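Hey, can you fold this one?
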Amino acid sequence: MLEEGLINHPVVGFGELGRKVNELRNLFRKIEESESLSPSAAEVQRTECLRSLREVATSFSERPARGDLTGEVCHWADGYHLNAALYEKMLGSVFDTLDEGKLTEEVEEILELLKSTWRILGITEIIHDTCYAWVLFRQFVFTGEQGLLKVVIEHLRKIPLKEQRGPQERLHLKSLRSSVDADDSCQDFTFFQSFLSPVQKWVDKKLNDYHLHFSEGSSMMVDIVTVAMLTRRILGEENDKAMESPDRDQIDRYITSSVKSAFMKIAHSVEIKADTSHEHVLASLAEETKKLLKIEANIFSPVLSRWHPQAAVLSASLLHKLYGNKLGPFLEHAEHLTEDVVSVFPAADSLEQYIMSVMASVVGDDGLDSLCRQKLVPYEIESKSGMVVLRWVNGQLERVETWVKRAAEQETWDPISPQQRHGGSIVEVYRIIEETADQFFAFKVPMRIGELNSFCRGIDKAFQIYTQLVTQPIVDKEDLVPPVPVLTRYKKELGIKAFVKKEIQEVRPVDERKSSEIVQLTMSKLCVRLNSLYYAISQLGKLEDSISERWAKRQSDKINIRRSMNGKSKSVVSNQKNQFDGSRKEINAAIDRVCEFTGLKVIFWDLQQPFIDNMYKNSVSQARLDTIVEVLDLVLAQLCDVIVEQLRDRVVTGLLQASLDGLVRVILDGGPTRVFSPNDAPLLEEDLEILKEFFISGGDGLPRGTVENLVSRVRPVINLIKQETRVLIDDLREVTQGGKSKFGSDSKTLLRVLCHRNDSEASHY
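Sure. Predicted structure:
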């Protein structure tokens, strides 16, 4: 070692000391020869040689330095390579011989002792910190002891930046260069490069795949990244690189490299397991990618965000892109709601939502919109999924309509039981619709409000179709009510043509098919139809609530994500309470129609002979209303046995209206067999009162106010019956000349009352 440093590579020429070079070599030779002598002789010779060697070596070491930076004497060796190697070896003595991953307890004393070599070896504070950091780091690599890494960081931080060093220090460090021969080329290194490039290379290798190397925790990773950033800063100055944000750029590269590597590994792993797994590869890959991002967000991003505030955003957006590349071809060919689509779409959508939530946790909801536009190309799974869901919905709704029609056509309109007075068809309709709704919500694929609205519109249409089928046999009023007789005088065959020319209408006979249908519509079957319609409308609210709740539960956690992905705010949890208003309107109208038909059928069809044809025939006193009321009582008893309580008043009101229509018909259009005089008015009023009280039924029937309102339209007609013929003729003349009736009547009503008068004055007029 002395020969290398003093003789073979002297930093300054020997001058007058040249003659002592041979003397020094002789001393080296004698020391080697002493190895072959006897122990006692060898000890004597070695001691004498070492004493002489000390004197000669000291004189060689302390030659004038010629402007040496470290003092008035020169370093003992030419260049710093040997000095650095020696110092590196001496620094190795700081480690505990029993535990090489720990520093010895005497580390401070050793370092203080080594300072005495700085002058001769040309060591400065910066050189010491650099060498010591290298020695410690190398020992860390060998032992894996994290405590050494923290000391490395401490000494790297002591190394000042270039502008913080003095001019002589900068010149001195610049002069310390070394070279490495490799592959027929020579690579030149500065002082810092020779020590710190291996460090940087090692940490870069680890951090370029940090998912592999730091999977068990992040504490070690913090120190490794710190070392990487410190060495990068120092070496960056050596290369005279002007880096605006070196830390962030380098973290970018670490994230990109490691995330890509980790994703490729999980993709390969998923593909290997594909043969044994029942799940689609892309669905499995989405789940594994989400797990990877969770690890990234929870373990690695908090570390990397110290140098890159948006580290989580970068890793999340990169995984979004990597998975998107795999997903793209599948999305292009997804046309129907297949098993693969049902598997992949929810998994991919869930991944995208989680990616968005990770990004939102960094930039907030406000910053998420612009970030999505800059960094992401959305999968648009919701849009694609909506298309295939709509195809499924349309197909299912066609089947629902077919089943609804079949159920209605096969219905016998008998009550299920005394407690369930509706038909079995409406129960079957609800079963079909609820099963379809269950299937709709069982799909975990993303859906928009449009798909739900289409589904609800289809269900609404199905109920309307059912309602139309329920009321299909209900004929028009004109087919049910007998035609009005030709307006004539009492017991006269000839019509009064001057008045009836425009009154006579063509009589439409009811065809046999319609007549048969009307006969089959018994009171019991009409009530079951009404009960079925009521069951349909009463259960709509539950169906709406079920749909609304399931939709709200499904969508509530996606509001913010959807807003950012679509670039505009949407009401995701829509109000579904009015989705079936079309059905409600249709069913209510149908109930009113059936109630009206039921009343008209009873009065004008079932009771046509006693009521329409025979009541008040020839004389009011001989054919009163009381006999009809007895029959109506039996009809009401039969009706109330079958009709549900909630519809009782509505259908009974229809019967009352039909009864009043029949009464007015008999009085005004009773034909040539009816005659009325003012003396009949009290009897008619008495009959009207009987009819009113019958429907009020002592408070058990219809509300008195409702009955009074309906009956009130008949009273003006009876009031006309009270009037003398001359008064009626004068009033009719006034009306026909454009005046106003003092009884509030019209010309047709006045004419009909006069036609049913059996007196000379009426006949003459």
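Residues 1-62 form one domain. Let me know if you want another pass with a different chain boundary.
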